[in-house]
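Hi support team,

I submitted a single chain yesterday and got back a structure, but I'm not sure I'm reading the C-alpha cell output correctly. Could someone confirm the output below corresponds to the sequence I sent? I've pasted both exactly as they appear in my results page.

Thanks,
R.
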Amino acid sequence: MSFHFVKKLPIPAEIKKQYPLSKEAIEKKIKRDAELRDIFTGASKKFLVIIGPCSADNEASVMDYVHRLARVQKNVEDRLLLIPRIYTAKPRTTGEGYKGMIHQPDSAKQPDMLAGLVAIRKLHMRVLDETGLTSADEMLYPENYWYLADILSYVAIGARSVEDQHHRMTTSAMDIPAGMKNPTSGDLSVMLNSVVAAQAKHTFIYRGWEVNSTGNPLAHVILRGATNKHGNSIPNYHYEDLIRLQHMYDERDLKNPAVIIDANHSNSNKQYEEQVRIVDEVMHSRNLNPRLKQLIKGVMIESYLEPGNQKIGIGQPVYGKSITDPCLGWEDSEKLIYSIYDQC
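Hi R., thanks for writing in. Yes, this is the structure output for that exact sequence:
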C-alpha cells in the first residue's frame, strides 16, 4: 500500500482532556468572542487587526511577540481589537518546505504529528492564559479544527482551500468569524460562493460522524490579491476593487457583509514593507466612502519580531525572524498599529 500508518493519534476529546482550558480562560474567550462578533454584526465600530508571523515556528519568540501585542492592545482598545495571527499549519504551493508547528514543533527535527498537536494546543492556550488575547489560525486541515475549536476566536480559509467542499461545510459548523480568501486565480465569485456555502446549513461527514451544521452567519471574505497566468501578482485592495466587491455583496442575500484586507501575499507581491503603504491606502478608501467603512472590518498583516525572513538550516538562526514568507518587523508593526488607530 502507498500509505504507511505510523501511529494512531488521540481524538480531540482526549487532547482537550489532557490539556483543558481553565475557567478563567473560558471566560476570557467568551468576552473576546462577543467583542469580535459585535464587529462583524455592526454592533461595534471597532476595527480588527489580525497580525502576527507568517507561520508560528517557535513558541518562545511567538509568545514574546504576543506579549508585546497585548501591551499595545491596552493602548488602543477603545478603537481596535488586535487578534494575534498564530498560524500553526502552513500551506505549501509545491508541497515542499516547512509545513508548520503541527508537523514539526521543532523545525530542526523530523515531523511528529502527535507532538505537533500537543504543541499547537499548548501554544494557543499560553496566549490566552498569559495575555488575555485570543488568536487566529488557518484551517488547513478541517479534521484538525476540533483540537482547537474551544480556543480560537478567528479562522481563515486559505486561497487553495476555499473551493473545497469539506472546508466550506466545516466552516458552516463554526460559531466564530471565518474569513474565506479569494482563490489564487482572483475569482471573487468563487470566494463569495464559499461564503454562501459557509452560511448555509449542511449534513456531512466529519471525523467519522454524520453531523448537521446550522450555518455560520459570521463567514466573510478576505482579499489577498491574485496571480495571473504568467505568474504575476495582481492586487485587489484598491478602491475600485472594494467598490466592485460591495456591488457583488449587494447582489447576494448574505448575512453580515464584511471584508478583511490581507496586506501581504499577492497584494504586496510578498514585498513585506509594502504592507504599511497598502494598509494606509485601505484606511483612506474606508474613510472616503461610508459604505466601504461599513464593509471593511479589518486588515491582516504579516509581522514578527525581526523584519524579512531566513532559510532553515543556513547559518545561525535569528530569533523572531520568519522561516517562511518575509514579515514586517516589530518596530514598524507597532507604528502601523498606532497609525491605524489614528485613522479610525
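A quick pointer for reading it: The longest strand covers residues 296-302. Let us know if anything else looks off.

Best,
Support desk
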